[in-house]
User: Fold these one by one.
Assistant:
Number 1:
Amino acid sequence: MEEAETLQLFNAPTPDWLRNTFDAFRHADIKTLNHGLGVDSTGLTHMILDEPERFGVAPDFSDFVVVTAILGDEFEDTNQDTENHLYGRLRSLGVRTVQVSRRGPERGDGIAVLSDTRSPTRVQRRGPYTLRDELLINGTIPTAAGGHRCSMNHKAWTLDTFARQAFPGARVGKLIGYNADEARRATKSEKNNKGAFAMDYPLIRENFDRARIARYVTDRTGVAWGKSYCSFCPFSGVCASRPAHLARLRRYPQVAAQDLLLEYRAMALNPRSKLYVTETLYKRVSDDQQVQALGEFEALLEQSDWAVYHVRRAYGAGRRESCQRGGHPKDCKRTGCHDASVKGAVDRSVETVATGSRHVALQRLKALAAEHGRPLQHDVAHPVGLDRVTLRYRPDKVYGTVEEFYVLAPAGIKDKEKERFPSTWGRIAEQGLIA
Ligand SMILES: [Zn+2]
């Protein structure tokens, strides 16, 4: 055991700057702990409740606040484990425990404080505006490109905003439960922080890697703590292994059905929007023979109001290397500077043309097919099928061109078009290439 832990020291070297964070942290006026409901921050919370002074926290917890950003799509077992194996201790010690979330689609909408108490009993299941709401309204899935933007917008921003609003003028310390396998995340987080908060990463300093902290939490609570993540996270290999995730969906078929609906709506607007890039969630769930989830998904489709959407996308072509090397401006519009095989900016317009029952909406789509003299297509990119009438077709990986179609999908996707869309669309539809 000791030998193994010594080895880990070499496997996960602590960055030099991390050795100095504790000093700044313990002099902060307020010490917050970001409790993300997962095993790492749960373990850290228990350690601090055991020995507050070792972590720079006042022995009566008067300067200590546990804060959770509620994303709205945690699995139920994670919520219950937190209630059953953490909140009791926070309650008995009278630790201030806060739950916050976003309030609306814009940052200007601010945050909602869902709970702020020294006797927490319940993890709030959702706030007024969740990541799933955002995805459903936009008809999209979380993008696998660009990392965990979901957690930046719905987690980090919410927590930072709370800290600034709740403790104006105070020097706020933040405990982050990154484990010793995540030194790179800590380095990145410290860089983004730019000195705004006195951050400390005790699990890294004390060399608790994922396996060690999981053992600690299980010893402590008697529970094999589940991973904390949104059920529709596209990083299934990162947030949870594929078998573990499928087992969880099997346990919560209603969640699986909601995620299947999310994927189906996104694929209606863009058949390339498979949740796992090359593979649909639908395929994984049906390969795993999750009959109940598939049945509940079908039921959701039947109960839904449906809509016909008019979708247009303008795909700008990217700049040639010669344009970039030549120091032309980023929005260079010179002839010959763009390449149809290089991806440029993509602008989208979505407009709801009709709503009604699935049958009524399908009749409307058929009428549009007749009106435009185009066939009604049944695209099996999604196994349930996507009913569509294509007006302008764009092959995969060709840029500097446009696509346009009518498609049938469950209602509720908001009409959306950037101000610049009409001019971008006009330019690419007529001249091609340049967005
Ligand atoms: Zn150029």
Number 2:
Amino acid sequence: MLKHDLTDEDFEPYFRTAQEVSQFFREIGPRYDAENTFAVPSIEAFKKSGLGALPVPKEFGGAGGSLLHASKVITELSRGDSAITLAYNMHYIMVGIAGGLMSEEQNKYWLGRVADGDLMFGPFSEQRAGFSGLADMKAVPQRDGGWRLYGKKTWGTLCEAADIITTNATITDAEGNLPEDFEARIAAESFFIGDFTVDADGNGDGLRIEKTWDALGMHATGTHTIHFDGYYVPADGFICQWRAGAFGVLEWASLMFASIYLGMQQRVLEEAVATLAKKRLGATFGAIVAADTEVAGVGHIIDGVGELASRVELSRRVLYRTCEEVISGRDADWPVELRFPYIGLAKTFIADNVLYMTRHAMSMVGGSSFRKGAIFERLYRDSAASMFQPLNADQSRTYIGQFLLQSARPQG
Ligand SMILES: Cc1cc2nc3c(=O)[nH]c(=O)nc-3n(C[C@H](O)[C@H](O)[C@H](O)COP(=O)(O)OP(=O)(O)OC[C@H]3O[C@@H](n4cnc5c(N)ncnc54)[C@H](O)[C@@H]3O)c2cc1C
């Protein structure tokens, strides 16, 4: 078990740094959203800030920040710019997941590199089926040890900045055949770590970046396709069997995603209040007939802003309380089958709320929010990404419903 023993007092300077970096992300964000490219200047700013080493335990050279500390930093960065932050969020997710599963020796090396400023990313999802699809990517054993990876991952967030890659692939026989038996295939799906070194065109030894990212929102994440064509992973790049390992540490994924969308909620509220507090309609003839209508005095606006704020506050409580329950081990009180979906509820709750909020903020601000370049149309587009990152709401409910119904079934 890794030690995350940073005190709240010692966390304060990290949070202040996050506020500064957040401000920088806020300034540069609109340009990279409009250009639909990775926010390259964010790399130096993030690396220089030292925030990437926050969750690395002290024994490996980091700060020893907890899940809650990481969550607070991501929330703050995301308030500045959610798309840029979603890229660095992959770093936090993979440091948490890999750090929780690697051996002492592996952690010393890889987390030691992270403490020195290296960035990690994690392309797992493939085109056929996202995160829950067993890896079609093959890890072909080599005569002299290690594996060569073949296949492609279609969601490579942060690939333009990362130094270290973590991914999953299924170990094949020497001829490259995937196990035919389903259980054997699950057992052969493995978690690997290695160097990610590519040139300015994205070409590396046995791997390459294909710049395919073109989506509704989250433009600055640089979520491109990663091709593996004989990428070599030495024996010590094997971490563990993927599914069995990952399910024990996936809180680092769902709670970090939740943090992204909590930061986005805070931004929606901030922008809605700033706009609605000063908006005047002048003389109106409609639901309100008046010589001069001040929007801040309209009933449904007052109520709506209050509602947005209530959703932010409830989401904050759900997320930070969930982090605290996981840190203190209270999650052990839940049936083990429900651990992952129950932790994931924070993310699905916040995703539902941010989607509602971006829509409602637009409806209150009015048609100007719909124009390109308006912060609200951007938040609306970016918030749609919250539907997809694991666990999604449908799958969470399926896990929970299945467990409850199966547990209550008559025996015999
Ligand atoms: C901006 C952005 C960045 C991303 N970055 C990364 C990244 O860096 N690395 C990465 O690995 N992934 C990344 N992803 C991918 C993401 O996490 C999902 O894996 C991806 O969206 C595809 O998975 P899906 O479940 O949405 O779709 P699909 O797997 O195609 O699912 C289609 C439908 O089937 C349902 N379904 C899927 N599996 C099951 C199941 N087992 N049981 C029941 N129902 C199921 C889904 O709920 C959905 O309704 C990113 C996504 C976004 C939007």
